[in-house]
Amino acid sequence: MTSTRPSALAGAFQGDLIGPDHPEYDTFRRCFNRDHDQHPALVARCTGPEDVRAALHHARENVLGVSVRGGGHSAPGYSSCDGGLVIDTSPMKRVEIDTDARTGRFGAGLTWGELDAATQEFGLAVTGGRVSDTGVAGLTLGSGSGWLERMYGPTAASLLSAEVVTADGRILRADAEHEADLFWGLRGGGGNFGVVTEFEFRLHPVGPLLYAGLLLHPRSAAGALTRFYRDFMEQAPDEVTGALALISAPPAEFVPEQVRGEPACGVIVVYVGDVAEGEKALSPLVEWGDPWVRMVGPMPYTAVQTMLDAGTPVGVSEYFKVDYLPELPDEAIDTALAQAEGITAPLTQLIFCPMGGASRLDADHMALSIPPTKWVYFCLAIWWGSDGRERHIDWTRSFHAAMRPWATGTSVPNFIGGDEGTARLRNSYGPEKYARLVALKDRYDPDNVFALNQNVPPSG
Ligand SMILES: Cc1cc2nc3c(=O)[nH]c(=O)nc-3n(C[C@H](O)[C@H](O)[C@H](O)COP(=O)(O)OP(=O)(O)OC[C@H]3O[C@@H](n4cnc5c(N)ncnc54)[C@H](O)[C@@H]3O)c2cc1C
């Protein structure tokens, strides 16, 4: 390793260079997940593809490891590193929307909150993350699950093209006709093949008002409610979406004071379509039981997209397991509820999301593999600081193990942890897609410059 001083890059570089002496070093070196606390040699805040090219050149010349950052939400902490170079694409916030064609070009540094605000000016949207400060870049490349997925598929299903800087510094535009293999790989292959500087999406008419909201029931109702929710969702039209979550009642004003912090069962309801039709379609679920909180009505899509924000404030620590469930039989529900009794941290969320609809796609035309299951669970242990870390991780692993009889044992790449190994990634893609990804890696990144991610190593 030779010089890592910011001045070594300064000539060719338009953006900010943040080294350990910079007053904002801590802001830019940190990931969302504070369980990962890394100290890179340099953060290169890139303004466009030329900056990315210069940063990659600098990393190569100085034998620096590279991590790539969009919104910084990588739960396994891949968007920072120790002693290496962070290629930070978050300054790229350009937005260009063609309302007639219903398409848009978006800088790789946008968050979902920023993209949603821009597209909703025209009543348009693309499937986006459920927490608004998640980055467009990482989510599009490696998972793309959101409230719109039953209607419009995962985010990558709406990707039309991407501008990419490859490991050797080429600036390419990949779409279905140009660099088609690379385009296939960017739709679900994660950050393995290059640094994306711009995404072009097909946009869909959504909102601006949707019928949506949340219900909060006591945990004692969870057994009956989860069964009702399963039966309701499994026959619901694609417009109906949402999630059921085992959580602690949040300390929020809308929650009655006496139940704050108590074990609860929350239900998010969203109807992606006409407000009046949504009210009718969701009424059996909204009217069910005697919830502590029933807060459902017409609301802006941009508000729907922030409903979960307060549950994962910046600065928390997180450990997760995510898996698909072909079915959700009563035994699986009872097992999940029994496991939930042992939750070790009050911010922890155990979320069940319905799949189906357009998320059921048989996606040969993209790297992303979503099995044809009815459910996916997100087991997210969330805590502050480092207190009880091992306990929280052990609980998450024990939940995952207990649910194994009903699970596929697979996940999309963004939800595969750093401790889960290549085998789970390989199984999740399946052998054919994985082999194709390795061939792509050999072609576009044979030296594995982009290794800090859910990595597909080159064959060599
Ligand atoms: C609170 C929270 C909520 C979430 N909600 C959802 C959800 O609703 N749906 C869902 O699908 N996922 C969700 N996720 C997971 C999320 O999709 C991934 O963590 C994703 O990687 C975050 O993208 P980012 O740009 O913020 O991440 P970053 O940490 O910036 O990047 C993650 C990885 O993506 C790659 N990457 C980032 N930017 C680029 C780029 N410009 N070019 C090439 N590669 C790049 C790199 O490999 C990087 O390591 C959530 C995560 C968190 C922490």
UniProtKB/TrEMBL annotation:
Keywords: FAD, Flavoprotein, Oxidoreductase. GO terms for molecular function: FAD binding; oxidoreductase activity. Residues 36-206 form the FAD-binding PCMH-type domain. Gene3D superfamilies: 3.30.465.10, 3.40.462.20, Uridine Diphospho-n-acetylenolpyruvylglucosamine Reductase, domain 2. It holds the Pfam family FAD_binding_4. InterPro entries: BBE, FAD-bd_PCMH, FAD-bd_PCMH-like_sf, FAD-bd_PCMH_sub1, FAD-bd_PCMH_sub2, FAD-linked_Oxase-like_C, FAD-linked_Oxidoreductase, Oxid_FAD_bind_N. Its cofactor is FAD. The keyword Flavoprotein applies. PANTHER family: BINDING OXIDOREDUCTASE, PUTATIVE (AFU_ORTHOLOGUE AFUA_1G17690)-RELATED, FAD-BINDING PCMH-TYPE DOMAIN-CONTAINING PROTEIN. Belongs to the oxygen-dependent FAD-linked oxidoreductase family. This is FAD-linked oxidase.
